[in-house]
Amino acid sequence: FWLKHIVSERRCVSRGCRLEIGTDAMRTVSRFAACCGALAAAAAAGAPVTCPPPDFATTTGFDLDTFVSAPWFIHQQMEVSYLPKSQNRCVRAVYERKSKKSFWGYEIGVRNFAEDVAIPHTKRDSGSTLCAKVVDADSGKLKVAPCAIPPLLGGPHWVLDY
Q1: Is beta strand 123-125 parallel, antiparallel or unpaired with respect to 108-115?
Q2: Of 125, 142, 124, 141, whose CA–CA distance to 133 is shortest?
Q3: Residue 71 CA from chain centroid, whole number
Q4: How far apart are CA 26 and CA 17, in angstroms?
């Protein structure tokens, strides 16, 4: 499943993205990194792997209005087919509440932005093709998918800290 840790920064400086991460967020990143390491070790040893692990938790007291109030910059980004390493500069997402739910029940529009690493840093924009549905409002669990498909086929998007 997809699991992202995103940190709000709200600005991008001329030399690239600048991230400022508080102590709580760093603890969350460390906890997540330790969890991933344990899962990788278990998988390598042939042990059964549960993902997410039983004691793993997302944020609590999630506030959607605060979450969508500003762009989010990615803290760590895995290279994927739709975002290769060459386009992995200043990656950010913008979430916006929809005025009414879509046919599939989506409440949020999602736009992803990135820039080419090489100068002149060509900008990339997903456009308005992605949507999100709140799955668990208090713990920050969303489903994200292309707007044309049902949320059932979407990927989990869990907010670890914000």
Answers
A1: antiparallel
A2: 142
A3: 11
A4: 17
Place of tokens 């949507």: 131
In sign, the C-alpha dihedral spanning 39, 43, 45, 47 is: positive
Residue 17: name the closest of 28, 7, 4, 25 by CA.
7
Q: How far is CA 131 from CA 33, 89, 90, 112, 150, in A?
A: 28, 23, 21, 11, 10
pTM score: 0.67
Structure tokens given for 111: 């736009």
Q: What residue type is 31 in one-letter code?
A: R
pLDDT, one tens digit for every residue, the chain (162 residues): 333 434 333 333 333 343 333 434 434 444 445 555 655 666 667 766 677 778 888 889 999 999 999 998 887 777 888 788 898 888 999 999 999 999 999 999 999 999 999 999 999 888 888 999 999 999 999 999 999 999 999 998 888 877
